[in-house]
Amino acid sequence: MNTDELIALLAHDAGPARRPAPGQVGGRLALALAVCGVMVLYMGLNPKLSEFASTSVFGLKMVWLFALLVFSAALIYSLAHPGRQMGNAPWAIGLALLAMGGQGMSQLLQAPVAQRSALALGTSWQVCALSIAFVALPVLAALMWTLRDMAPTRPALTGAMSGLCAGALAAMLYSLHCTENSFTFFALWYSAGMGLSAILGAGLGTRFLRW
Fold first, then answer.
1. pLDDT of 121 over the 60 cut
2. If pLDDT is split at 50, 70 and 90, which confidence band does 5 have?
3. In 3D, which of 70, 88, 210 has the Cα closest to residue 147?
4. How buried is residue 110: exposed, middle or buried, by Cβ count under 10 Å (0-12/13-18/19+)?
5. What's the pLDDT at 95?
6. Are 183 and 91 in contact (CB under 8 A)?
7. Residue 155 lies inside a defined structural domain of this protein
């Protein structure tokens, strides 16, 4: 077999890779979200959730997490389509994290010294980050499954952003269980949970999203 014949054989019936249908992607994510919801329900809802949900601290936390969710999802979309520019999404993610970090530091510095430990650690710092990373697993798995059928050219970065996106969504759901109301706590432990999910996503991306 000469070179021309080999090329012709490889090119036979060749065409663009089939991307997952929107309904298929939606089904995967819906199933993953349902599993995450069951996980949070198993943990138990905050008995004072209605009271917490009416506070500005809770509202700002949810806005922060939603911003991370949206911008990380936008970045995933760009990374999954070769040739697309990443745009301002990386800067927006960085600014969102910096904003909560600055708010948490400001709250900590303004508090009396005796209260600073409580603001930073709350009553659930031992489990918060791990819980968020754990709840994020179904969504991260669904994203990895979908991205394998696409064409990300930066597997580690795509995986990391998938982990961040899943972590932000998990953190929003975990907020229904969480009884903490400190910006300092959110800046430390919610960020740590999303960071763990992003690190896991980067590792999985390197392994499963490589061409």
1. yes
2. low
3. 210
4. exposed
5. 97
6. no
7. yes
- Cα–Cα separations (whole angstroms), residue 130 to 68, 173, 179: 19, 14, 16
Domain assignment of residue 15, yes or no: no
Q: How far apart are CA 93 and CA 79, in angstroms?
A: 15
Label residues 34-61 b or e (16+ Cβ within 10 Å = b).
Answer: eebeebbeebeebeeeeebeeeeebeeb
- How many folded domains does the chain comprise? 1
| pTM of structure | 0.87
| Residue 94 within a domain | yes
CA dihedral over 127, 131, 132, 137, signed as positive or negative: positive
C-beta atoms surrounding 189 within 10 Å = 26
Residue 14 pLDDT: 46
pLDDT tens per residue, range 176-207:
999 999 999 999 999 999 999 999 999 999 99
Task: Name the residue with tokens 């430390």.
Answer: 188
